[in-house]
Write a structure and sequence with these properties.
Length: 69
């Protein structure tokens, strides 16, 4: 089962998703955390936003791991 919850920043998407996940006993994947982790990884590697090749190489390394909440 896949349920997508969309909305503006700070609208409670993650809170609703966690409650729904608990209710239905399904994992929740918070994409905001993924975006922030990727952005931090690129920032720490000093990758310029317009350098597509370096972005792909940096992001596709196996040391970026996400765990379901």
């Amino acid at each position: 089962m896949i349920i997508a919850i969309d909305g503006t920043s700070s609208s409670g998407k993650t809170s609703i998703a966690r409650e729904l996940g608990n209710l239905l006993n399904i994992p929740v994947l918070g994409t905001g955390a993924i975006y922030r982790a990727v952005a931090l990884k690129l920032y720490n590697a000093s990758v310029e936003p317009n350098n597509d090749e370096k972005i792909n190489v940096t992001v596709n390394r196996p040391d970026l791991v996400y765990r379901y909440s």
